[in-house]
Specification:
There is one protein chain. Helices cover 69% and strands 3% of the residues. The chain has 248 residues and is mainly α. It has a domain at 77-191. It has a two-stranded parallel sheet. Strand 1 (50-53), helix 3 (57-66) and strand 2 form a beta-alpha-beta unit. The chain is globular and about 60 Å long. The two termini are 33 Å apart.
């Protein structure tokens, strides 16, 4: 707990120092003139053209308030995750409604084949999908909706993606699957931000990969007595620093 507070304090103090330095003082406290390379936080924000993120309300509010000129792009994998969550909600509801224990067990066992990408489904998984198609039509309908949304986001032509997404919205809205009806309302509300991915191909992948690296490095920092060495380790591992000679 203390380590996390120390890390947050260090990052916060670093931000405060950078702001004061940009304003009018150097490390010794002496007055200095601003140079053309100096930029305020507001000026840096104005240079941001696009922001990729998930649909969290806090992110949307922050970007709308501080980066009004930026184009919001919703990460396609978060959008697809919403469809996967809706499909799993349909599956769980069907398990609860099924009185036959064997049928309920078969629906439970079909979870991963339903959620996996088609090219990752094994032979046994395909058999389970065929059983779902034959005996549980609403669940298979949800599976097809999940796949159609992914196909819409695979297109590289905005027009084709828009047409397929409109088709998906119409189908989901009348699917009689409550989770997908709710999801259709959400996607219709943010349709342009979702379609912005088609032309830019920007996702959160790079940032989330970096975040995972930082988490791994943080686990190695439990023996450090201050946040400084942790910050240095992050820069060493993630900052593109090349050591000559390299570490053994």
């Amino acid at each position: 707990m203390h380590d996390r507070q120390d890390q947050e304090s260090a990052f916060g103090s670093s931000r405060r120092r950078s702001r004061s330095e940009v304003a009018n003082a150097d490390a010794s406290g002496a007055e200095r003139k601003l140079t053309p390379s100096d930029e305020t936080e507001e000026e840096r924000c104005q240079q941001i053209e696009m922001v990729t993120m998930d649909m969290a309300a806090g992110y949307i509010e922050a970007v709308t308030e501080h980066l009004p000129q930026a184009t919001i792009i919703f990460d396609r994998f978060h959008v697809q995750q919403l469809a996967s969550n809706a499909l799993d909600e349909v599956r769980r509801a069907l398990v609860r409604e099924t009185e036959d224990p064997d049928a309920a067990r078969a629906i439970k066992n079909a979870r991963w084949p339903l959620l996996m990408n088609p090219w990752n489904v094994t032979r046994s998984g395909r058999i389970k999908l065929r059983e779902v198609e034959q005996h549980h039509k609403p669940l298979f309908r949800g599976h097809l909706l999940k796949e159609l949304l992914a196909r819409a986001l695979d297109y590289r032509q905005t027009k084709r993606a828009r047409e397929t997404l409109e088709e998906w919205l119409a189908w989901a809205s009348r699917s009689r699957l409550k989770p997908f009806v709710r999801l259709a309302r959400t996607i219709r509300k943010w349709k342009e931000e979702i379609l912005a991915y088609i032309s830019t191909r920007l996702t959160n992948g790079l940032v989330e990969g970096l975040n995972n690296k930082v988490r791994v490095i943080s686990r190695r920092a439990y023996g450090f007595h201050s946040p400084g060495p942790l910050i240095s380790m992050i820069f060493l591992c993630c900052g593109g620093i090349v050591l000559k000679p390299p570490l053994p």
